[in-house]
Each structure stands twice: as structure tokens, then as C-alpha cells.
């Protein structure tokens, strides 16, 4: 793709804000540097030898988790138009600020994320099975056909053995970059996902980097996959971040909705994916109480010496360290995602969502 064409595409609005319907263009920190690393020979060499290696993220993290990095907070808040209230808090480092914990309230789409609106919304959804956005970020939505293949929007095709196909592969953000469920999981597409939906939440630097469970349920199994730490930005999308990056896969069973797969994908400068499994947040006593609320017995998890536990909708699942990152959710056909997310994806637009807003329902 010629540089001029690439530049034009970058300057075109590519995100729609769900709450207002406004088209916006994202400005990323270090965008020119990322373009250099992925589109020039010297840059790719440096990327392979240094920047995509876990040790680089570790060393970079030493600075951002030290008191020396506190001076980075104010310029960051100013650049991305974040709340000035953040500057009143005594963060010990930029890393502390980046991974900050904020109040999250479950609510209908478009409502302000406040306790008042969150509590009133809970009363309105009694008897329903709402499915919430598990993170703040830019979302894409794709349907999965009965064969376990991704159904791409018209015009998005892949050359394969001299023939054009418009399934199997998933374009991250720009045409020509393809991924599949099998590559993301390093395993065949599970039967329960066929006929379902695949969601991508792309978290850029100014987004809130903690994530929640999208509904109540229990953890069945989880798997860690070691890998690189490539960028997940559109300038770097042709490198297969979903299939090569470090990631964690959780098999969840949502109450009344069935099984889903929740995948956290690490990216450049993200040294760690921090899930709360096995921590005090999910103590055995806490798991017992949660299961009791769901009318279930507590049992020990027999895979990897992990403990089975239940979670509530909106409960924090974990957080990312410094950098951009991505969450992929693969849902079964019982979960119906709002049509506007699919329509925006067909138009080539990512939908800007806020954590905790309703984006679908489980079929009753």
C-alpha cells in the first residue's frame, strides 16, 4: 500500500462513538514510531531483536513503575483529554496511574456511568439476561457461521489458492490482514461457538485498562499461551498479533447463556496480563458465597490445581500493564449482540464502547 494511501486512510474517521453517534479519529501516542517499526527494514529488524521481546517490556516497565515516571501523567491527561480529577490523586508512578481502578456500574447503553444510573438500570433488567461490554475501547463484531468460520462484511475477501474467499479469516483493522478462530486459539473452533459471535475490544493507551466479566457465571478452564508482544495498532496489523502474541484464554459458563471464550491479548509494552484467578479476590470463601448466591455447590477445580469459582456480572476479571491491548470474546448463539455493532463493522467502523454498558442479551 503506498504511503500516501496509508496516510489518507489513517486520517479518515474510523470510529463511531456509540453514545453520541459522532465519528471520531483516534490519535495514538507514538504513531510514527510504530509505523517505522512495522514498515521499514531497519524498523522490523529492531522490532524482532528488541521491541517485541518480553524483556524490553520488563525493562520499560521498571521506569514506568518508578516515581521518576510521575511527570508523565499530567501531559498524558492533557493530550488525551482525560478528566482533570485524575491529577488530584496521588499516583506513585505512571504505571500506577495507567492501571488505576475506577468504579464500574452496569447500565443500559448511552447512560452515564454513575452509581445512580447503574442502580436504576439493574431494577429495569430483572428477569432478563443482559450481556455487558467487558472493557472500554473500540469494538468490532463478526458472526460465526455453522461451520465455525467468520463471516466477513461484503468486499472483505482473501486470496487462497487462486480463489477469493470471504470467510475463515478475520481482518484486524485494515484490509489484507487475516486471522482465524483456529489461529487465535491454536485449536479447532469449538462446537458451542458455531452460529455465534466474535467480538474484538481494542484498548488504546487512553482507555481504561481493567476489564470485567460480561455476565454472571463460573470459570471452567483457562490456558496461557506464550508469545511475542507485537503492537495491535492498525499501523502494525499485518503482523499476526492475535495468533502470535502472548494471550490468556478463559472458558466461562454464563448463567442461562452457556459457554463463551474470553481471550486477553498482550501487546507491545504490555509485560503482563493480570487476571485475578487464584488471588485473594477469588478466595475459596468468596467462591462459596458467590456459588451459594447462584444456587450451586462449591467444588475444587481439577485442572492445573486451579480452584473453581463463580463471578458476578460486572466483577473485575483483571487488568493490563502498560500499553495498548486487545480482548477477544467468542460467544455462542444464545447471546444476541445489538445490531448496531454489526452494522458499524460492515461500514468499516469500530464502535467506541464504555465498560459496563449493555451490548446484548442472552436468549431466555
- Spatial extent as radius of gyration: 20 Å
Tell me the distance between the termini: 47 Å
Series of H and E elements: HEEHHHHHHEEEEEHEEEHEEEHEEEEHEE
Biggest sheet statistics: 11 strands, mixed
List segments where confidence is low: pLDDT < 50 over at least 5 consecutive residues.
Answer: 1-11, 156-177, 228-243, 279-284, 296-306
Backbone structural class:
alpha+beta
Overall strand count: 19
Helical content (DSSP H or I, runs of 4+): 10-25%
DSSP strand content? 15-25%
Overall spatial form: globular
- Whole-number mean pLDDT: 75
Tally of individual helices: 11
What this model shows, in words?
The chain is of the alpha+beta class and 364 residues long. Helices cover 24% and strands 24% of the residues. A hairpin with a 5-residue loop joins strand 4 and strand 5. Helix 2 packs across helix 3. It starts with a helix and ends with a strand. The model is unreliable at 1-11, 156-177, 228-243, 279-284 and 296-306 (pLDDT under 50).
